[in-house]
Amino acid sequence: MEEAKTARRHTPPAAVSGMEERIRRLRRFFDRNYPGIVAVYLYKPVFGPGPYTEIDLGILLAATPEATLPAEAEVEWMIQNAVGLEADVRILNGGPPTFVGQVIRGGRLIVDRDAALRKDLSEGLLRSI
User: Fold this and answer.
1) Which domains does the chain have, with CATH numbers?
2) Which of 21, 36, 44, 29 is nearest to 77 (CA)?
3) Of 30, 56, 114, 123, which is least surrounded by CB within 10 A?
4) CB 82 within 8 A of CB 19
5) Would strands 37-43 and 54-61 be described as parallel, antiparallel, or unpaired?
6) Is residue 63 within 8 Å of residue 36, measured between CB atoms?
7) What is the pLDDT of residues 59-84, one digit of tens each?
8) Max Cα distance, the chain (Å)
9) What pLDDT does 69 receive?
10) Distances in Å between the alpha carbon of 13 and those of 61, 90, 111?
11) pLDDT score, position 15
12) In terms of Cα–Cα distance, which of 2, 114, 102, 84 is closest to 42?
């Protein structure tokens, strides 16, 4: 956590604005797609001068899918086509508890469609840790 704070402090302004633009594009993408997504977390953010080619996202769904791999692969492909970034997408529902806790507690919430539902689902997932 301290390393992330230090990296942010020393990140050149152009790098921050480049990442912020990518986040805005992702928000617009999720505004138009996948209504079953409750929240999206950016984790392991990329710092430095760019160019940014990949982004890591944890996605919280309103309902846990039977199989997460096809859903993750589809969202990764759609993000790549929509915003020009390769994505490593992980569905948080039913994911490994330690990983889910790290993403929810340490990630940056970039999409929050339903704060009350997000809070309920997050608390339920965190209780299993």
Assistant:
1) 2-127 (3.30.460.10)
2) 29
3) 123
4) no
5) antiparallel
6) yes
7) 999 987 776 677 788 889 998 888 88
8) 42
9) 72
10) 33, 29, 23
11) 43
12) 102
Take residue 88 and report the two structure tokens written for it: 């490593």
Tokens of 103: 């993403």
What is the DSSP track for the chain? Answer: -HHHHHHHHTS-HHHHHHHHHHHHHHHHHHHHS-TTEEEEEEES---SS----EEEEEEEESS--S-HHHHHHHHHHHHHHHHS-EEEEEE-TTS-HHHHHHHHHHSEEEEES-HHHHHHHHHHHHHT-
Kindly list the distances between the CA atom of residue 38 and the CA atoms of 17, 57, 60, 119, 127, in Å, as whole numbers in the listed order: 26, 13, 6, 10, 19
Contact predicate 115/39, CB 8 Å: no
